[in-house]
Amino acid sequence: MTVYAPPLKPGRTRKPTTHAKPCETAEVRQWRSRMERADSKIIYKQRAATAETTNADLRRWRTLDRFAVRGLAKVRCQVLLNVVARNLQRWRQLAA
Predict the structure, then answer these.
(1) Based on the domain organization, do 72 and 94 belong to the same domain?
(2) 95 within domain boundaries
(3) What's the total number of domains in the chain?
(4) In which domain, by residue range, is 44 found?
(5) To which H or E segment does residue 54 belong?
(6) The pTM is what?
(7) Distance, CA of 80 to CA of 74 (rounded, Å)
């Protein structure tokens, strides 16, 4: 699996260095170099049109900003039911 995570926030600059941070693993160094490539930036921009709109829809219209149940198992059920409903909605839109 290839991770395309958000880059650093605007305004924050990272000093160029040849030394890795002592707590960074090889995977983190690999991720940093991958996110600096132009093709990775294009893939990350596409993420906004797919994952972020879905997350916003689930939070805003499907009440995933608050839960009416208590306990991790019940919250997980509520999230999964909302995700299934969202997938069925998208499937219906694509089929039309």
Answers:
(1) yes
(2) yes
(3) 2
(4) 24-61
(5) helix 53-61
(6) 0.48
(7) 10
